[in-house]
Amino acid sequence: MTFTLPTLPYAHDALEKAIDKTTMEIHHGRHHKAYVDNLNAAIQGRSEFDGQSIEAILAKAATLPDDIRQKVINNGGGHANHTLFWETMSPNGGGDPSGVLADAITSTFGDLATLKQKVKEAALARFGSGWSWVVVSGGKLEILSTANQDSPLMHGKTPILGVDVWEHAYYLRYQNKRADYVDAFWHVINWSDVAARFQKAGH
Amino acid sequence: MRTPDRRDALRVALAGGAAMLLPKAVVAQEAAFSLPKLPYSFDALEPHIDAKTMEIHWGRHHKAYVDNLNKALAGKGEWEKKTIEEILKSIADVPAPVRQAVINNGGGHHNHSLFWASMGPKAGGEPTGPLAKAIDAAFESFAKFQAKLTAAGMTRFGSGWAWLVSDDKGKLDVISTANQDSPLMMTPVLTPLLGVDVWEHAYYLKYQNKRADYLAAWFKTVDWKVVAERHAKAGK
Lengths: 203, 236
Ligand SMILES: [Fe+2]
Ligand SMILES: [Fe+2]
Prior knowledge:
Bound molecules: fe (ii) ion
Number of domains of chain A: 2
Radius of gyration of chain B: 18 Å
Oligomer: heterodimer
Number of strands of chain A: 3
Helix content of chain B: 40-55%
Number of strands of chain B: 3
């Protein structure tokens, strides 16, 4: 089986209030595409992956064959992480979450501002390339960061929101100012998609 | 090669007896490490590396490593007096609460200092003399060395560096390190002779995702005289 690059659910320039069009074109069309291509190359001819979702494969990353494990972690992680990233942003995003997700944020972090602050701290503390995440773990919300394209799924945690802090995600517009990029990200956050992931994660 | 920083200026002053004239409070407030001056203008490496990248890479990224290194070591008297090479070589002895900050920012400071000094506007080509011989001995040919260093840069997933290093006998190898990890932190210590920054910030404005194009262009900026001097010192 082969994995395919998902089409973006909006135009390249749809997220301009946070992310510029050129960055979206290159990020989706070249970086994400390379992860998909390299993932397919890594698992080519191995029927044991037939019919498996990338999430299922990442969840058992530790047991993958030695010769392809790191390639699947890097490129399978890259594929899953970016797919989530695109879906959890929207030109009509921003604002506040509602419903059970909002309740869970309040009970776990006190308020939304604290969650945003912690996501930002995790993003800024990630030295080098990686992601800052909101995950569901044991039914509870947590914030963590991972290096490179490591997925929280590898640690039994379900990501519901992720901010890509590889420099390629923001360098053309923000250069070294990662903090400004993370602040802007909240203008395009698609809370209804995050809430749907939270429901599915079985909090 | 060691980039002179503020402490060297103070040491020179001390040696000349002029330190007596410096108010102690001023000396105490001097940061232990400082951003070295670029040995050429921002646009000197065009078209291989663009002026804007140089300006941001040196003036913001490298500066942040220096500032954060100073913060990490502030008030740690004996560590502030060491050279950055000495610190990185004895990284395991750096106090645990600040060790990772020193690895990241001390590594960042030293790696970038080496990086600027080993590039130049009228550079590129191939090395000559003992370094050329050592490269042939280790890699068969300059072309094979170039391919190996390029491959090390290309296969570093995420942020890091690709290096030409020497052991204490002058034997060469190519390695890559993650993030700002320095070859000096390795056991046994490896001496970096030439490094190429493959963090995306090093090339994204001009090359975007095309790291291979950046690496090919970067070779045209290498000042082999500087690398040969480092090699001569490392093999002693
Ligand atoms: Fe990315
Ligand atoms: Fe750099």
